[in-house]
Design a protein that fits this description.
Elements (H helix, E strand, L loop, with lengths): L5 H13 L2 E3 L2 H17 L5 E6 L1 H7 L13 H11 L14 H11 L3 E6 L7 E8 L2 E8 L5 E6 L2 E2 L25 H10 L6 H20 L6 H8 L3 H17 L5 E3 L5 H17 L4 H22 L7 H18 L2 H15 L11 H20 L15 H15 L1 H12 L2
Helix pairs in contact: 2-4, 3-16, 4-5, 6-11, 7-9, 7-10, 8-9, 9-10, 9-14, 10-11, 10-12, 10-14, 11-12, 11-15, 12-13, 12-14, 13-14, 13-15
C-alpha cells in the first residue's frame, strides 16, 4: 500500500487515536474524567455532584470496581473520585495519580458531598452529564459517543472553551476525524503486509508491554473469578494460553487493578482480547518481532472495523468482535493468507455472535475466553477445510457482507435487548 495514500494515513491515524492507555474500566473512568473536568471548571471542591448517565453507562459502571476507590464501585464512587482527586489533563488515566491517603479517605469524603444519580434520556448510547456546584457557583460537562469526547462545558450558565485531547495525554487531536468507513478486510491485510513499521511500532510495542503486564498480574494474584488461572490449570497448549492471558488481564482490570491497559474501540477488555492471544501465538511459534507487529495490525484493525458498525456500547458483547480480530491476527501470523483471514473472521462471528453485554464485571473474563476460543476455532476450521456458508444464520457470502449483518444486529437489532438488560440490572 502506498504510504502517501488516503487509506494508509487513515489507518495510522485510527490506530494512534484508538490504541491509547486507560486505567480501569473505561465507563467509570469516563465518569471520573467528566467529573474531574467539571471540578476543574468550577475551580473548587464541589458540595454537590449531579450525575446524569445513559443506560449503557449505568449498565457498565454498576458492578465494576473503580481503581484507587478503596474497593468501591458505581457511579457515585467514580464521580467523587474524579471530582476530589482526579487530574483532568490525564483523560482515561484521570485517577492514576490518586495517593494511598486519598484512596483511604474517599468513602468518608463522599459523605460531605450531596451526590445524586439520574438516568439520562438520550439518543446517544454513550452520554454522560456531570453537574457540580459549590455556593453560588456551578459547572457542567457533557461527554457523548466516545469516552473522552467532551461536547459541552459550562460555568454559571456560560459556555467554556473545550480542549480536545486523546486518552493519551501526550497527544493532542489534530485535524478531522479519520474516515473509519475506509476500513475493510482486504485493505487491512494490504496495510499490515506493507506498512512501514516505524509508523506504528511505538503504538504496538506499548500495547504489548502494557497488556502483557496486566495479564501477568491477573495470573499471579487473586482477582475476580480467576478465569485466567483456572484455564492454565487445564493444560499448557498455546490455545489455552491465548485464552488465559486475555482472561487474566480482564480478571485484574474488572477487579480494580490500577495497572493501565491499551484499549481498542474504547475498551480495555477489547484491547487485551485483540492483542494478548496474538502475542501468545507469536511467542509459542517463535515468530519474529516484525511478524508479531504485523499480526497485531490485523487483529487491532479487524476489531476496529467490526466495532465501528456496532458502536462503542451495545447489548452485543464487544469481546466477540475482539475475539474474531484475535483469530484473524493468529491466522495472519501463521499463514499470511488473506483467504484464511477472511474465513477465520466469518467462522468466528458465526460461532459467538449471540453473547450479550450485561455490563462490566468479573464474568467478562469468561466471555473473553469464549470469544478467543471462537476466533481460534474459526482459524482451525479453515485449516481443516471446514467453514460456514452464506445463508447459515447471519452468515452471508463474503466477509464484508457478514460483517454488515453483524453490525446491523449489534447496532439496531439488539436495542430492545439492551433496554431489557438495563431494566433487569437496575432492579437487581
Amino acid at each position: 500500500m502506498d504510504r502517501n495514500s488516503k487509506v494508509y494515513n487513515a489507518y495510522v491515524e485510527i490506530l494512534r487515536r484508538e490504541l491509547v492507555p486507560a486505567m480501569g474500566c473505561t465507563e467509570p473512568i469516563a465518569v471520573a474524567y467528566c467529573a474531574a473536568v467539571a471540578r476543574k471548571t468550577l475551580g473548587q471542591i464541589p458540595e454537590k455532584i449531579e450525575i446524569y448517565a445513559s443506560g449503557n453507562i449505568i449498565k457498565n459502571v454498576k458492578s465494576v470496581i473503580v481503581p484507587h476507590a478503596g474497593g468501591l464501585r458505581g457511579l457515585e464512587a467514580a464521580a467523587a473520585l474524579g471530582a476530589l482527586f482526579g487530574r483532568a489533563e490525564s483523560c482515561l488515566e484521570v485517577v492514576s495519580c490518586v495517593t494511598a491517603d486519598e484512596e483511604r479517605s474517599l468513602a468518608e469524603r463522599m459523605k460531605d458531598i450531596n451526590i445524586t444519580v439520574e438516568p439520562l434520556e438520550s439518543d446517544n448510547v454513550l452520554d454522560i452529564v456531570i453537574k457540580v456546584s459549590a455556593g453560588e457557583d456551578c459547572a457542567s460537562v457533557r461527554i457523548v459517543d466516545e469516552h473522552t469526547n467532551i461536547v459541552e462545558i459550562t460555568k454559571n450558565g456560560r459556555s467554556e472553551q473545550i480542549e480536545k485531547h486523546t486518552a493519551d495525554k501526550s497527544v493532542e487531536l489534530k485535524g478531522d476525524m479519520p474516515d473509519y468507513s475506509l476500513l475493510n478486510i482486504a485493505d487491512i491485510f494490504d496495510f499490515a503486509s506493507t506498512a512501514e513499521l516505524f509508523d506504528v511500532i511505538a503504538i504496538l510495542e506499548r500495547q504489548i508491554n502494557y497488556n502483557k503486564a496486566i495479564s501477568q498480574e491477573g495470573l499471579e494474584n487473586d482477582y475476580g473469578a480467576k478465569i485466567g488461572q483456572l484455564l492454565l490449570k487445564r493444560d499448557s497448549h498455546v490455545r489455552t494460553k491465548a485464552k488465559a492471558w486475555a482472561a487474566a488481564g480482564s480478571d485484574a482490570r474488572m477487579s480494580g487493578c490500577d495497572m493501565p491497559v491499551i484499549i481498542n474501540s474504547g475498551s480495555g477488555n477489547q484491547g487485551m482480547t485483540a492483542s494478548l492471544p496474538v502475542i501468545a501465538y507469536a511467542e509459542h511459534y517463535e515468530k519474529s518481532h516484525d511478524e508479531l507487529l504485523r499480526a497485531l495490525l490485523i487483529s487491532n484493525l479487524v476489531t476496529l472495523h467490526l466495532k465501528h458498525g456496532i458502536g462503542r456500547l451495545s447489548a452485543y458483547c464487544g469481546a466477540v468482535s475482539a475475539g474474531a480480530g484475535a483469530g484473524a491476527g493468529v491466522a495472519y501470523l501463521l499463514t499470511n493468507d488473506l483467504r484464511t483471514v477472511n474465513h477465520t473472521i466469518v467462522n468466528a462471528l458465526a460461532i459467538s455472535s449471540g453473547i450479550v453485554c450485561d455490563g462490566a464485571k468479573a464474568s467478562c473474563a469468561a466471555k473473553i475466553a469464549m470469544a478467543v476460543d471462537a476466533g481460534i476455532m474459526g482459524y482451525e476450521m479453515h485449516t481443516q477445510n471446514c467453514q460456514f456458508y452464506g445463508g447459515d444464520g447471519l452468515v452471508s457470502k463474503g466477509v464484508e457482507n457478514t460483517i454488515r449483518n453483524i453490525s446491523a444486529l449489534g447496532s439496531e437489532g439488539m436495542k430492545e435487548t439492551d433496554r431489557k438488560i438495563i431494566e433487569i440490572m437496575t432492579h437487581c
